[in-house]
Amino acid sequence: MSATETDRTIRVLIVDDHRMFSQALELLLRGEDGIVVVGSAATGEEALEMCDALEVDVALVDIDLPGIDGVAVTAQLRESHPEIHVVVITAFQAPNVMARAVKAGANGYVMKTDLADTLVGAITMAMSGNMVLPAGRLAPPISALGWDQPAPVPPGAPGSGPAGPPGSPAAGTHSDRPSGPLSEREVEILQAIANGRSTAEIGAAFDITEHTVRSHVKRIFTKLGAHSKAEAVAKGVHLDLISTEPEA
Q: pTM of the entire structure?
């Protein structure tokens, strides 16, 4: 995380329809240096209105909301406020729920049972643009994403972009269709993201600037048709480009 990111206050919006749970989250965050809760919403519609009215950096969004659910809230926030980082908080471990959150553009998810230990770290990681989804839990939702996968093709092979989601039209006509294989450096950077490395740590490891790292990440998103680091990593694993096994 850069000095700029660590020096500024992170403004958090809590989105959960259980008042006592929202209050508990706020109590957990009270007194934490560099974090302030700017509001609490009980519905997805209220959350969207509050994001229009308030300055929000990170939204903690429950999946199971009345009205529009947390996945729909995430998708709409990514559309209207792409600067807001979304962390899904959920009691659901179903792979299809995790997959929907990733596809909607969430930075990741945190289980409600883990919040006491992981909440602050999840917020700061999301603020820095890093993937909050723990590497050990990436594998379950991958098959639920439902992407077609031909035999893996080495990076740089001619005419070899991997297939997009089922029902994708011809190449170039579907926004989620991967546009081409990743370069060796892009695969290395994607693996580093999967290992939980920050932009600054990746830059230091490869002796490149953080700006260059971000440029690589943008190209990875474009090539994989991903909208978040979590989705890019999930697709990278699905295409057998990277691994979610813990580092030795």
A: 0.65
DSSP 3-state percent helix, strand, coil across the chain (nearest 5): 45, 10, 40
- Tell how many helices (H) and how many strands (E) occur in the chain: 11, 5
49: left (phi over 0), alpha (psi -120 to 50) or beta: alpha
Q: Between β-strands 10-15 and 58-62, what pairing exists: parallel, antiparallel or unpaired? A: parallel
At 13-72, the pLDDT tens digits run 999 999 999 999 998 898 788 999 999 999 999 999 999 999 999 999 999 899 999 999
CA distance 232 to 193: 9
Interatomic CA distance for residues 71 and 104, integer angstroms: 6
pLDDT > 70? residue 163: no
Strand partners, 89: 62, 110
**Alpha carbons 59 and 123: distance in angstroms, whole number:** 9
CA 152 to chain centre: 24
- Nearest one of 63, 56, 161, 151 to 104, comparing CA atoms: 63
Could you tell me which residues are beta bridge partners of residue 61?
15, 88
